[in-house]
Amino acid sequence: MNNKKAAVFLDRDGTINEQMGYINHISRFQLLAGAAEAIARLNQLHIPVVVVSNQSGLGRGYFPEELLDRVHEKMHRLLAEKGAHIDGLYWCPHHPDAKVARFKKKNCGCRKPDIGLLEQAATELDLDLKSSFMVGDRWSDLKCGKKAGARSILVLTGYGRGDLAYIGPNQQVQPDFVAEDLPAAVDWIIPKLTGDGDPGMD
Fold it and tell me: Is there a domain that residue 176 lies in?
């Protein structure tokens, strides 16, 4: 019997917080409207929420690890203020052109669209990837979700609207759903995980 849980995997920048390029100062981390409340809805239903994020700026030397820790502390605090929390946080600091030697890797396996972060979360949190969802604003998020066997949702916040217009038409991988923002994505996900809607229906 499979007791593993379905989860909602979330990209960070452009999905949870404002897309500002590299978050190289604590002031640049700002939650998107409604994001915390959307996560809280999943929390209330005991659906695991896991953040998976490419953070090559760390490897490229654009900001120190200490700042990334502070940014994530701020994220946890801002979510908690709205009664929300995440169940897991995973990030990839690697890049082929990284200036920090320990983060310089050509094929790390964890940088999205690779699925190493999702696999690590699935192992550590006892999750079922094939019944899970991946939500993000880039095609790399969608490819990651598809590769893991999860359903993928493109949000139109961050880079999403531009990616849909200019990147998406030439891609073999397409989203299972396109949502205006994270709250709209959660509206689509919840019925599929609670049995209140037909999992095969959009």
Answer: yes
What's the one-letter identity of residue 130?
A: K
Residue 154: strand, helix, or coil: strand
The pTM of this model reads 0.94
Domain harbouring 21, CATH code: 3.40.50.1000
DSSP type of residue 151: E
Residue 21 within any structural domain of the chain? yes
CB 140 within 8 A of CB 130: no
Q: Which residues are known catalytic residues? A: 11, 13
76 domain-assigned: yes
Three-state secondary-structure class, residue 62: coil
Range of the domain at 161: 8-194
196 and 45 Cβ atoms separated by less than 8 Å: no
Q: How many domains, the chain?
A: 1
- Cα distances from 62 to residues 24, 54, 78, 161, 188, in angstroms, run 7, 14, 24, 26, 36
Measure the CA angle with vertex 7, ends 129 and 92; round to 5°.
75
Residue 59 lies in a domain: yes
pLDDT in tens, the chain (202 residues): 568 999 999 999 999 999 999 999 999 999 999 999 999 999 999 999 999 999 999 989 999 999 999 999 999 999 999 999 999 999 999 988 888 889 999 899 999 999 999 999 999 999 999 999 999 999 999 999 999 999 999 999 999 999 999 999 999 999 999 999 999 999 999 999 998 754 443 3
